[in-house]
Write a structure and sequence with these properties.
alpha/beta, eight-stranded mixed beta sheet, 8 strands, binds NADP nicotinamide-adenine-dinucleotide phosphate
Length: about 240
Amino acid sequence: MSDKIVVVTGATRGIGRATATAFARAGYRVIVTGRRAPAVEAVVGELRSAGLAAEGEILDVCSVDSARCLHDSLAERHDHIDVLVNNAGILPEATATGTVNFAHPGAFTETLMTNTFGPVNVIEALLPLVRRAPAGRIVNISTEMGSLTEQRNPESAYYSMVVPGYQASKAALNSITVGLAKSLADTAVRVTSVCPGFVATELAPAAADAPTTPEQAAQVVLAAAESPEVSTDGSFVGAQGAIAW
Ligand SMILES: NC(=O)c1ccc[n+]([C@@H]2O[C@H](COP(=O)([O-])OP(=O)(O)OC[C@H]3O[C@@H](n4cnc5c(N)ncnc54)[C@H](OP(=O)(O)O)[C@@H]3O)[C@@H](O)[C@H]2O)c1
């Protein structure tokens, strides 16, 4: 059995699925998690058919009970988790309908629940297992769109983009990266936010023609998880290196 264990949330498609595959190919035992059993089983089956180490678990990141169940199930079989990849995320503002003055309340709430509370919920449940790893890592999948520096830089491609819920959810996630990293500074656990690039997935209609493949994005996530250069107050990185917060 592989010694190194990674848990990937939202691993049933897109960047999460590719990330699970990349870690498995790199020698990790991958815990594939998702909301729907058939989708989880499909990814686990695909990995095992390729001779890779994978286990499936049901996880809705928005549910406290679901996260606790995941912890209890994993703790029965494993004494630690090396890497937690908080990947599950949504962008409902891309398809929300109706006129709004600024932000669509339903989409805003749903986005914050999944993209911000979700990672916090999973971290809260799994942190005891991550702390038991020799050099634990928590990787939060963020985006350069959540960078406050980019949002306020007129030269930035993101200056003209206003997607209130999504950007707020990822800016908050970046804040969580910093706060969590500091709270774990005297442990062996390090925390990083990663922007995988603009990736061709089902996240939003505009992503269908994105220039980066999920497999390329997964290499960015894997490299960030294995990079020794993570400070005790967190890091925010992409394919080209450090990103301004
Ligand atoms: N695509 C991009 O250009 C891009 C750029 C920067 C950052 N990101 C980030 O990358 C991450 C992955 O996005 P993606 O592009 O791969 O999107 P995607 O193809 O839509 O995949 C999203 C994944 O998250 C899962 N998910 C959604 N809500 C969940 C919940 N409550 N509990 C558990 N799983 C849930 C989905 O599973 P279900 O099948 O159950 O819905 C799916 O597996 C997101 O955090 C996104 O913000 C994407």
